[in-house]
Amino acid sequence: MTKDGRSKRLAVAGLLVAGALAAAAGPAEAEELRRMATPQLIEEARASGAIDDDTAALYLAYALRAPDRLPEAYRSDVPWRGTLPLRSLRQRAETMKQSPARAAVQSLLAGTCSDASGTLPSVLDTTNFHIQYGTVGGGLTASDYGTSLETTWGTEVTGFGWAAPPVLASNPPPGNRYHVRIESLGGGLYGYVDVNGDHAGFVGNSPNTPWDDLDAYASCMVLNDDYSGFPGTPQTALDATTAHEFNHSIQFGYGALTGSGRADDVFVEGGASWVEDEVFDSSNDNYGYLWPNFTQCLGQYTASPYNYWIVFRALTERYGANTPGGGEQVMQDFWEETSKRTTQNLVALNTALVNKGTNLADAFHAAAITSKLNRPCGGGYVYPYCFEEAAGYAAAAGSPAWTRTISTVGSSATATTPDNYASAFVRLPTTGGSFSVTLANTDAAGGELRASVVCDTGTALSITPFPAVVGPSGSSTLNPVDPTGCTTLGLILTNQSQTGANPSSCTARAWTVTTGVVPVELQLFTAE
After folding, report:
1. Which of 9, 141, 164, 489 could, after both became Cys, cross-link 428 (CB 3.0–4.6 A)?
2. Which of 226, 199, 230, 296 minimizes the C-alpha distance to 80?
3. Cα 323 vs. chain centroid, distance in angstroms?
4. Residue 182 to residues 164, 175, 230, 238, 449: CA-CA distances in angstroms?
């Protein structure tokens, strides 16, 4: 988004608070605001200066814990998940100056998973869950919630072997079960996991892992009591939520969301969105997050972290979906490495992939090809360059956009791609005969640019890697590239320069892709 575009949006957000949206916003800006969830509306107003930081914190606390007190202008039915906003709000409250707003925020968050937030009259105890509830809507019952939760536990813990969340020894839930509350939440809020409550808090070293987790937490879960207004059916929305939020329970239990070794948000939420399909393959709620911003780096991803699940899917699906020891093992190993504090983020993910016989640089490049082409597995479309649910992805969100397009031979394209695993997609011409393609890294200071030319024939992908990874001020050429038979032809580029396990920034590296006419004699020689 351009600076001018963001300024327009921020101005519109400010006018939204004043009740003048319809009169002041253009159709595009108004439509974009209508697609925003409550936390985004609050943040837009804060960034525009329409409300101050303390008011934004208070409104987010209302959205999470007292939706009836949230001003009407910020109420949205656009779905959102609360674990990350709640964790961020707790951190923000610690640094707020003493004020009525801070006191109100702290009061609202104090009873997140306790009777202090309202007594729930009914209890359902399943094998692994202690569930408190009142009225359940959307055509579901408390038993449906219990079944969904138990299916999630049976897959993630019993089946896959992820460590069960620890219980709080000083005040465990009945039967040492996991504590869940089914409550009336605000519009669009699926639910959340928190580490504050009657049966939640600091554990330190989880007894459910053979290593010292250092700062594991017992957690609790709050689920919406009515999923009738969410995408899909109430049952699929519930299933996606139990799989997603319980994965946060496991992450807290690993001590991976707190302390100096905590994972970046893209792993926290991208990973939890990814696991939805591993537990409930037909829920498909995560289709709503397609697609991520491929031009941003994995090492410091600042766009919505939920959207990144599809990249994790591309990295893991080749090893088997919904299968113990399959693709899930990559993510499980990542979280275990993070929990052990042996590595962080990019290095932890690389370690998990090395355990499968590859590495992050190779797997990320293959994942970029898979994501951009989005071809369904079968026939000539084979792993690692296909998705089993590609048709569903395309129906829900189309295809990822090309970064640049070269329409005619002899033309070129320029752009930048940051270090620490980001991608770019350049569409190449499919007419005009064979041509050469040169990739030049025009940055003298860094970057490791890896590229492949991919031809989609309509029945298979033909992938030709460039002869070399292109370092600073370097170049590499493919000659000739023959577009014959290609329905789509493109250059897929990834920057695999890694500057740290948990980089604080990602430097953009400039590059140029140039196409050139191949002499007729070379074309004839190649044909022979």
Report:
1. 489
2. 230
3. 21
4. 21, 19, 16, 11, 49
pLDDT in tens, 178-193: 999 999 998 899 999 9
Q: What share of the chain is helix, strand, coil (3-state, %, to 5)?
A: 40, 20, 40
Report the alpha-carbon distance of residue 107 to residue 101 in Å, rounded.
10
User: What is residue 42's three-state secondary structure?
Assistant: helix
pLDDT the model gives residue 115: 63
Q: How far apart are CA 64 and CA 83, in angstroms?
A: 10
CA distance 368 to 382: 15
Instruction: State the pTM of this model.
Output: 0.92
The tens digit of pLDDT for each residue in 241-269 reads 999 999 999 999 999 998 878 999 999 99
pLDDT average, residue stretch 446-462: 98
Q: What are the structural domains of the chain?
A: 3-108 (no CATH), 111-259 (3.40.30), 262-400 (no CATH), 404-527 (2.60.120.380)
- SS3 for 148-183 is HHHHHHHHHHHHCCCCCCCCCCCCCCHHHCEEEEEE
* CA–CA separation, 92 and 57 (whole Å): 8
C-alpha closest to that of 41 among 59, 22, 28, 64? 59
Comparing 295-309, 406-420, 507-521, the range with the smallest average pLDDT is: 507-521
